[in-house]
Amino acid sequence: MQQTSKPQRHASTGHPGLDRSPTELAFLETILESLHDGVYVYSSDSLRIRYMNAAALDRHGWTREEAREKTISDTAATFNKKAFFRAAIPLFNGELDTITLELTHFTGPIEVSTRLIRTTDEGDFFVSVLRDITGRKSLELEKVQTVSTVSHELRTPLTSIHGALRLLKAGVVADLDDKTQSVVDIAVRNTDRLLSIVNDILDLEKINSDKMDFSIAEMDIIECLNDTVELVSGTAFEHDIELEISSDLRGAMVMGNSDRIAQVITNFASNAIKYSPAGATVRFGLEQEDGGIVVSVSDEGPGITQDQTRMLFKPFSQARASDGTKRPGTGLGLAIVDAILKRLDYPVSFTSEVGQGSTFQFRIPAHLVLWTDPIETRGVARA
Fold this sequence. Notes:
Mean pLDDT: 85
CATH architecture of the largest domain: 2-Layer Sandwich
Structural class: alpha+beta
Largest sheet: 7 strands, mixed
Number of strands: 13
CATH superfamily of the largest domain: Histidine kinase-like ATPase, C-terminal domain
Radius of gyration: 24 Å
Distance between the termini: 31 Å
Shape: globular
Number of domains: 3
Order of helices and strands: EHEEHHHHEEEHHEHEHEEHEEE
Strand content: 25-35%
Number of helices: 10
């Protein structure tokens, strides 16, 4: 989803970021014009369009002359300039070399990858490549629908088996010797995992079919965070993980859905606990930023390599940690998180450093924050 090398600086001879002979430039332009993906080159400060290839022009019905009189803001009625520049901060400061976002356009789902090209003569330019991902999304939906049909059939017998095993484990049916108790414990853990997989699949199917509740109401985001941390504290204890909450707010009311937000934080926390070594600390952050509120979960795990980041947030895809160890999971958790946060209109992002850990966070926009009560000294509490 995001990459971590720094943007390049190039000399310019007329085309931003290119120092080529006229023959090479003509060849490159021929390649760009033949692409099915839309290519947009535009100023990094004014956002004025410098170049659009044929696919991009066709998408908007513009001529080349008309495009030169436009800014990138004109490509979508819902374009938010402030949000765009906020998202582009990692490109300006060199933290990332590419930012890729999946968006919903009136023509269907699209993926937009943006880079910052710095030139010595003509200033800096953004280069965005727009790809129609309708086909990819259709295949993902078909896969989820197929698996969810099977999951519906599995859930009832699994629930019955799980309940019976729990009774056995508790000694309600009979006293068990140590060997039998060990076997029952293994069975309980595996049925827990199977039920979790089934529930993840059914949750994703509910979201895709608009059957999940996304009703919005006033809610206490700090209370939601504290309750969720308490919920995962048992799992953290089992894995010898410390939980820490840090906040610069005493109180905060926002517009949101407490169940869905708790589901997102729980997923972030479960992953953080799963990838952290014993004795590590998982940190939950809640802070005010530009009028909005950022909720984050950080781990001390192995981190995620650059080539694995594109797998994040995609259904049935699980990025492999930098230590090469594959953890158990369906690859659905972050896809569910992404779908929930898109419906709530909360931007999601992450940072990761190999050998240091990862941070996943979402931002509640300023217009959805009702009121906050800041504290002078940032508070830190252990759960």
